[in-house]
Amino acid sequence: LQRQRIRPAELLRSATDAFAGLSGERRVVLRTALLPGELELLPDVLIDRERTQLVFSNLIGNAIRHSPEGATVELRALRAEGAVRFEVEDHGGGIPPEFQQRVFEKFFRLPGGASGSAGLGLAIAKEIVSAHGGDIGVRSEVGRGSTFWFTLPVDPAVPA
Predict the structure, then answer these.
(1) What's the pLDDT at 82?
(2) Whole-angstrom Cα distance, residue 81 to residue 91?
(3) What's the rounded Cα separation, in Å, for the pair 133 and 17?
(4) Looking at the whole model, is its pTM more than 0.85?
(5) Per-residue CA distances from 155 to 45, 71, 83 (Å)
(6) Which residues in 25-132 belong to E strands, given as ranges?
(7) Exposed (0-12), middle (13-18) or buried (19+): which is 37, by Cβ within 10 Å?
């Protein structure tokens, strides 16, 4: 990993900007759920920016593709113990409980899901987050949507 100190607000802005086109095409609103001032109060994270953008890319791309037209996909960043927790929430079909942990396995695809996916994106995201010393997971309810989250460690040189 090529770690550097980065503001969580900067990560969310660049992730949102990268998906402006796809969200527009799919007519899905992509927004951060916190006021800009709140984001600025979060501690810096010590991460590999390029690899972390791959995590955001997978989670946001999936959220947009699985959301109905007119829905909102929300990005959040919150304080966690020694870390910042990032969340991507969609209002799509949700994931049945029995598959929620399996979605992070290599080559796993939800039964009846859209074809064209190799089932590697979430497995790669998990590897990247783990390499940073973070965790990744999902909360989901069928018919209501999913919130994928991951944590990244704060820069130990900066008081949290």
Answers:
(1) 87
(2) 28
(3) 26
(4) yes
(5) 5, 35, 9
(6) 29-32, 45-48, 72-80, 83-89
(7) exposed
